[in-house]
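PROTOCOL LOG
Step 1. Enter all chains and additional molecules of the complex.
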Amino acid sequence: MRPFLLLVSLLFILTTCSSSDHRDDGRITIEFWTIALGDAFADYINGMIATYEAQHPNVRVRWVDVSGTEVAEKFLASLVGDDPPDVVNAYDLPRFLQYDVLVNMDEAVSPADQAKRLESFWQGMGYYQGSNYALPWYSSVNMMWYNREIFSAAGLDPDQPPQTIDEMLEMGRTIRQQTGKYGISWYLHPSLGTPAWALLRLDGFWPLFDGDHTTINSPKACAILQKWVDAYKDGTLPPEALAAAGRDNVNWFIEGRAAMLPFSGGWITRYFDTSFEAKVTATRHPRGALGKMPASNMVLVVPKKSPNVKEAVAFGLFVTNDVNQLAFCRLVAILPSTKKAAADPYFRRPPETIADVANSISAADIPNSFVQAPPDVRGWSRMEDILYEEFAKAMGGQQSIEKALARVERKWNHLLHYQ
Amino acid sequence: MHSKISPYLFIAPGLLCLATFFAYPLLDTFWLSLHKYNIFDPPEFIGLENFRRALDDELFWRVLANTLLYALIVVPSLVVISFFLALLLNSTLTGIKIFRTLYYIPVVTSIVVAGIVWKWIYNADGLLNALLQGLGISGPSWLADARGVPQALVEFLGFSFSSPWLSEPAIALFSVALVTIWKAAPYYMIIYLAGLQGIPVQLMEAARVDGASWWQGVRNVIIPTIQPYTLVVSIIATIGALRTFGEVYVMTGGGPFHRTNLLSYYIYTLGFKYLEVGYASAVSLILLAIIMVFALLNFRMAGGDNTGSA
Amino acid sequence: MSRDLLQRLGLYLVLLLVGTVLLLPFVWLLSTALKSESADLFSYPPQWIPDPIVWSNFVKSWNLLPFGLYIFNTFFIAISTVVLNLFFCSLTGYALARMRFAGRQVIFYAVLATAMVPFQVLLIPLFIVTLKLGLVDSYAGVILPVAVNAFGIFLLRQAFTTIPLDLENAARIDGCNDFTIYARIMMPLIKPALATQAAFTFVAQWNDFLWPLVVLKDRDLYTLQLALASLQGVFGVNWRYISAASIIALVPTIIFFFFTQRFFTQGLTSGGVKE
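Step 2. Run joint prediction.
Step 3. Record the structure below.
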């Protein structure tokens, strides 16, 4: 019996012990989370950290690389559990913004430093009800690839790609009718690509809320979304456009099954073989009524609960400054979010490959871009799901777009009421 | 006889655990259901607002309907199928013990593995549809089809009649229910087996002497005799069905269009995804009430405990 | 004679048929796990025996995920739970079975009542309690809330009641105190019930999914089931890897089950069967 008791108490002690990592040697430790930068960019990140530590001997940076699917949950859990990291490369921002757990960057960052960031990005992903809560980091601006061969086969001039969204949908329809191939490789699921609310913003219908109710149930919104419903129905868009699945949109284009592919830049060319490369051209992303192309932006946030807010913000500013962003952009085809870096001649260098062409198009359109940030309203993640569902039903022909938006309006107002 | 305090010392650790990890959270559920709470901000008392919200919440009603339909499919199926499985395995064939052991395997596999396997089988191009194709039937996308089973059957028979009445349950819900039945049937089979093995041989022989067929023997002798076991099975199966979570999480995430969203899963998403802890607690209490009602109904329907043993 | 033979053959046939339905999914899982990269997973007619049979999927998924760590975590958690469970449930069960004290009936019914309330109802407040106790993201957080359950208390109590009072009285006359009686005499006598409870608890904890999902955030602490569920993010829709990983997760359970299967069938029926 006694050995049994011993075992029990031993187990008890073992299980309640958790490894603790307290401060050592008097330096402040800043925990820095990145998303999936792991092996590929370890040298870059470590180099950056080494430079910072050399400049700030009282600070130690601990780098933790988290996988994309985990980071939101892990971050949320750490915030609830009182042991949050200090600087976090987060996405799914609306979940955190609505709880007022992030440091207000409008207040924490000096006007001089704020002025170094491009305004569209400063008021982008981290913007919530009047203030900005994030530090913009690397970004991408959408451009478009298209397949000249399919254009010719459909009787379209391969040197005249569509300039506007409406033209794009029109040409896509022609391609579908003339060649049987999909017109546009477009993604509509919220987790990837351009969900319904982004389609509205693209065509100038924004904001979606006015005080305590939503404005989405309007003829204008119906008209905009109806275009996409029609495109889906007549096969211009592939049937899987609504479902989220890996790299399908890339695959359809590469296999020559879709004529146009709006995309974030040149890195897709690694999948092109030489014969395919000869068929495709990069061009600017078509514009909607808004006149701007979509951009996405990775950000760094600092939780209010961090024990070292000042040092965390300082480190965050360092990571996202001109020098470091430019260095990052030289390693991989991404774009910066700071003014000086964006204006660097590096982005206007003569292109050597078609990937370079694509990237230079993206870079040139930085001033014409808008960050695809969702509405800053409480409970947005649920609302997004609701919009996706009703829109999907409309796409699938189960209901009219008018009915869909009416239902969205009802459910959104219901949620707003209970927030 | 024994010291006065030692009983209390004995029950102390167990009760402490139960109090901390059961009683307290249960009371907390009641308390939280009257508040608005998102873990970050302090709880805000709102009275019965959460319950009012449930009444108003379309998704809640959808989930409730799903859960009840699901239970309606699963429980009778389990009661009947497990019974016949037990009849089958209640023989003295050589090697019957091996069969009993093998049959039990679905029960001991984790719901994650089971969910993954079945998701794979249910794939639109997966095994099930391949087998059906051999019979000349073109199967639907089992976990992604939101059409009602009756509706699909009507279409299969060649009619193009459609009606909202035919839209429940969704094919996807039906598919999920099938997995639950597959996984749980052997468990209840063992319980029935215990009951069958307790039936005196003389009873069956007497029936046979009277000229009764096998089925009559089953109906008139066996079923009434194992009534207490049927009661146990139906109550446990009911409670189990109403608590289902794993199948939904692994296979469908509540889709398509919330047609497989069950109460447990809804509570989970409310609490952990949307951090609406107060509302989630209210819905939990509604689930608890439903379970108690169903358990009681079961008790009545399966004949009460007029033959209760143990 | 031949009618009897026919009947028996017919029975075997039915048994095999039903068994096939019950176990087919596992066979298919294994078949998929053994298929090579180039083999069409969706071929029609379905290919049961892969050609060629490759083991690389097992190797690859084993390498891509720290299965050794997950198996260790799950094993540690399961064993700890069993130990604590047997200990606490037997203490409580013994007291309820053999000791007389104020409130015994009330406590007994209260314990039984807890079996009625499903786990899901308590999930969120339980998580908050665990959080406040600082047990989130730790082994203890997974183990302690399930260390005691009504089923175990009930089972062991029933087992204790079957032991003749005389044994206890004799021991008391010899001067043993309660704990010694419990430990030296009663516990060894209910070994079958303890084994049953151990088997059930082990499998339940090994397979448990929802609670570890909620409590564990650190990937290094993940249990096997949790890791498996998160595979769809890691492997995309690579069914070969997922199948191989599922089989890796399944094998320990099956092995354990075959060694202890008599406890499962026995445990459920003890108390009512005329053996």
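Step 4. Note key features.
The longest helix of chain C spans residues 2-33.
Chain C touches chain A at residues 80, 83-84, 87, 131, 135-140, 143-144, 183-184, 217, 219, 230, 233-234, 236-237 (CB under 8 Å).
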